[in-house]
Specification:
441 residues; alpha/beta; Rossmann fold; Glutamyl-tRNA Synthetase, domain 3; 3-stranded parallel β-sheet; 3-stranded antiparallel β-sheet; elongated
Length: 441
């Protein structure tokens, strides 16, 4: 059974960057009929907030990324204690007492000597009396996993064969001095005990994966298939990290971006396949293959989501948007006509309100000085309502005969006078919906 997981920390809102891991892990499980676990990494009690847990669930539900079960790491602390005891008994877990300042000085000294800034394992030389003295002086120490100093290799499903020399990596800290379990230990214990078969995450986790492989093996687990996707940059290749706060899924939702647009883009971005709008997760899953993704940094432009949203909305029926049309203030008896006219002329559903305002309250006319006399003459020829689909053609024919104007010189000034815009739906469709024409006053 294929089992994947998405393990966000509830210390902030989901953003477009960590969505990639959620989506890829979901699609792998969905394609194989497997299990997708939402695992909340809330071992940090000070930074983890229930509001963020709720928001994570809401964002995933908005996208349709439903989970088969949900786990909270704060409910599994006993499992992490047990694993820590096992590693201690194996001689793979040791207590260290250096302060952050002391560790920083060690790193700087190693760098000055041209050596990699790797922890020197000085704590392994401490005897029991020295440890007791340090505990009395500094309090409890932090705990590190003792790596076997050998090459760690694995076939990465995106990056290809990876090989990392464990001697170039510091023994990872798994428990802080205050007793808090860190991500590395909690993640490994959960992956082993939950039978995780595939782990997809960002390429910034490659070194973590190397150390976690040794931990999984030490705990008797089966090493899952790892895949590390490329990191996102801005459209010009700039770092995205400082902008992620403005690229939260909740903000995109508030801007009217369709979830299908987000999913269609993120399921192809960075792959060899072109980005194409897909109307459902089933369609997206059908064409998803990890092997199609590359390792190069991937450019992301939030503006790409809006044309996709527009294309998605244009294919919807009134029944699918009835709530949004009603919320814009459109009466039920005009809803079908309104949606037919506007569906090809909106970027997001948020635009519906502006269109209904134009139809129901009129638009401020835009009339060039050289067109004022022409527009005034044309409006005198406009028949009284109600207007029909044939009104525009009959009216413009009469105006053409009276003024001699034709083509763009005829139609554009009239469009701008009635709608205040240069572009929009066919005026033969717009005119029947116009309830107020401000240019007449």
């Amino acid at each position: 059974m294929t089992t994947t997981r998405f393990a966000p920390s509830p210390t902030g809102y989901l953003h477009i960057g960590n969505l990639r891991a959620a989506l890829m892990n979901y699609l792998i499980a969905k394609k194989s009929g497997g299990t997708f676990i939402l695992r909340i990494d809330d071992t940090d009690p000070e930074r983890s907030k229930q509001d963020y847990v709720d928001a994570i669930q809401q964002d995933l539900e908005w996208l349709g990324l439903t989970w088969d079960r949900m786990e909270r790491q704060s409910d599994r602390l006993d499992r992490y204690h047990a694993a820590a005891d096992t590693l201690r008994q194996m001689g793979r877990f040791y207590e260290c007492f250096e302060t952050p300042t002391e560790l920083d000085l060690k790193r700087k000294k190693q760098l000055n000597m041209g050596k990699p800034p790797v922890y020197d394992r000085a704590a392994l030389d401490l005897d029991d009396a020295q440890k007791e003295a340090l505990r009395a002086e500094r309090g409890a120490g932090h705990w590190r996993f003792k790596l076997d100093l050998e090459r760690i290799t694995w076939p990465d499903a995106i990056l290809g064969d990876i090989s990392i020399d464990a001697a170039s990596v510091s023994d990872p800290v798994l428990i802080r001095a205050d007793g808090q379990f860190l991500y590395t230990l909690a993640s490994v214990v959960d992956d082993v005990e939950m039978g995780i078969t595939h782990v997809v995450r960002g390429s910034d986790h490659v070194t973590n994966t190397a150390t976690q492989i040794q931990m999984i093996q030490a705990l008797g687990g089966t090493v899952p298939t790892f895949a590390h996707h490329s990191l996102l940059t801005g459209p010009q290749g700039e770092g995205l990290s400082k902008r992620l706060g403005t690229l939260s899924l909740r903000d995109l939702r508030a801007q009217g971006v369709a979830p299908e647009a987000v999913l269609s883009l993120m399921a192809r971005l960075g792959s060899s396949q072109p980005v194409e709008l897909r109307m459902s997760l089933d369609e997206i899953a059908d064409g998803f293959e990890l092997s199609q993704f590359g390792s190069a940094p991937t450019k992301f432009d939030v503006n790409d989501l809006f044309p996709l949203t527009a294309r998605y909305l244009s294919g919807l029926s009134l029944d699918q948007v009835a709530g949004a049309v009603r919320a814009a203030g459109v009466p039920d008896d005009l809803a079908d006509q309104f949606w037919t006219v506007t569906r090809e002329n909106i970027t997001t559903l948020n635009d519906l309100g502006d269109w209904w305002s134009l139809f129901s309250q009129g638009a401020e006319p835009v009339i060039a000085d050289e067109d004022r006399e022409f527009v005034a003459t044309a409006l005198e020829l406009l028949p009284a309502g109600p207007f029909t689909k044939d009104t525009w053609g009959a009216w413009t024919a009469a105006v053409k005969e009276a003024t001699g104007r034709k083509g763009k010189g005829l139609f554009m000034p009239l469009r701008k006078a009635l709608t205040g815009q240069e572009r929009g739906p066919d005026m033969s469709d717009v005119l029947p919906l116009l309830q107020v024409i401000k240019a007449r006053s």
